[in-house]
Design goal:
Layout (H helix, E strand, L loop, with lengths): L1 H24 L7 E2 L1 H4 L9 H4 L3 E3 L3 E3 L10 E5 L4 E3 L5 E2 L2 E5 L10 E4 L3 E4 L16 E4 L2 E2 L11 E2 L13 H10 L2
Antiparallel strand pairs: 1-2, 2-3, 3-8, 4-7, 5-6, 5-8, 9-10, 11-12
């Protein structure tokens, strides 16, 4: 149990900058954790009990699908609307239901990045508390294949994202600009 706690605490630390970004863009209102039907209200599958009870979004671009039954190492995950990339393994999942396997008690909570989006994460290899986090970050991207610009000799991929810090919390014009055009 200690290994699982340590692994997932490191995961939380690695996502803190993303959490701050979400809090800033929400202007401190509401929550950054939400059920799938908030983002996909016309998708009837996201209203099913086994999905609403065990899957949720962090912001609009990160899908969490924890294993909630003791002793289980696999589970069905519903992926709405677009492709999703496993944040830990890089495996891509198409829209619909798929099974994730080999999730151990000591594994990270399964997180999936929406294709075409970017989130910022932080290396936490040597971090044991939040005071050791610095201003260096990594960009985790869910690249989307661009069929319009790709051809037989060149393949183009794209991803979009924005970044605000807690220091931007009271700058409404900057937040509005970031939401409209990206940062």
């Amino acid at each position: 149990m200690l290994a699982a706690a340590k692994t997932n605490l490191k995961l939380r630390y690695s996502l803190l900058k993303y959490f701050y970004h979400l809090f800033v863009t929400k202007r401190g209102l509401g929550t950054i954790w939400k059920p799938l039907f908030f983002e996909y209200p016309t998708d009837q599958n996201v209203y099913l009990d086994d999905i609403t009870d065990t899957q949720f979004l962090i912001g609009n671009n990160l899908l969490a699908a924890p294993i909630v039954e003791e002793g289980k190492t696999s589970r069905k995950v519903y992926f709405p609307s677009t492709n999703w990339i496993n944040l830990e393994t890089g495996k891509k999942y198409s829209p619909g239901t798929d099974v994730i396997t080999d999730v151990k008690l000591t594994s990270q909570v399964p997180l999936f990045l929406k294709e075409g989006s970017i989130i910022h994460t932080q290396d936490t290899e040597k971090v044991v508390n939040t005071k050791q986090l610095d201003n260096k970050f990594l960009l985790s991207t869910g690249l989307r294949f661009d069929t319009r610009r790709s051809n037989s000799t060149h393949q183009y991929y794209e991803s979009t994202g924005n970044m605000l810090s807690i220091n931007n919390y009271h700058n409404d014009s900057l937040i509005d600009l970031c939401e409209r055009e990206g940062c």
